[in-house]
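Hi team,

As requested, here is the filled-out complex form for the iron/sulfur cluster run. I kept the field names the same as last time so the parser does not choke. Let me know if anything looks off before we queue the next batch.

— J.
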Amino acid sequence: MSTDPKEAREPATRVARDALQRPLHDLRISVLDQCNFRCPYCMPEDEFHADYEFLRRSQRLTYDEILRIARAAASLGVSKLRLTGGEPLLDKNLPTLVEGLAKIPGVDDIAMTTNGMLLAANAGRLAAAGLHRVTVSLDSLDEDVFRRMSGGRGDLNKVLEGIAAATAAGLTPLKINVVVQRGVNDRTVLDLLEHFRGTGHIVRLIEFMDVGNQNGWRLDQVVPSQQLLDKVQARWPLRRLDQNYPGEVARRYAYVDGEGEIGFISSVTDPFCGDCSRARLSADGVLYTCLFANRGTDLRESLRVGADDEELTDVLSQIWLQRGDRYSELRRPEVAEAHVLRKVEMYRIGG
Ligand code: SF4
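And here is what came back:
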């Protein structure tokens, strides 16, 4: 039996499918709700000020509880885990959790989404623990725009150092997520693409979404992916690539001149709910079956009242079997703009 943490393990014996026959394939695990940024579209400063009460340690799942849920999910078909937050690297012991996750049978892809500020100091430890790759949220390379979009807390050089360290540690393919907002960072997109062309890093341009309840989303702030695609094509010819796997969120394109790949994530103008295979676990143990869910299921309660692994797996299986989420396909912009639907906050479940 190989001890290499990157070696794939035996697949699950049964694959849970939801009410739309979508398999449970990905579990996103929020390890904590805190963040060192205050991005206005996720955690605006005025709401999440210095006295804001985040989850206490005792309210958050322990590593053992996370591992039990991840094992149960893997037995139902999950093979891809993504660590998120808030900002997951604020958890200094994260490599310990990664080591445990890397031993779970059936899991062959462990990724992490981070804002990159603490990546340089942690990339090596995480790779050694079994992390496969990282996605860095980086909305602009324009210092002022970056500062505004990180709520005045980000340091661009630190993020770029983090990307370099993650690359050196082999946490690749490294993806760069860019949330594009009209009139905020759309004019700096081509410069960012130029910077990462030829690096092997994959930039994904994400349509601004009405996640949570805080970001004051309006449709006219969205730059449709087609518009961005035309803008990029005018500068660098692109050719369409096939999906890597069903349920992949990005529409993939390659530069015809061989300088790499980019992607478009178009939840507003080209929703992808049809093969959405993602479940999300909050740091306090609530399982959500959609990024735009208005309620979830408290697994922490089940764990702390003594549910065994079989009972936990049954609970998970029941949740998924009843799942019918397809928010983005059903989104009505006028309703979304009215902000009447109470949705889970993105910082609680990671994007
Ligand atoms: S809106 Fe919900 S169901 Fe649709 S792709 Fe996003 S997370 Fe999946």
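Two things worth flagging: Residues 272-273, 276, 278, 290-292, 325-328 surround iron/sulfur cluster (CB under 6 Å). Residues 3 and 103 are 9 Å apart (CA to CA).

Thanks,
J.
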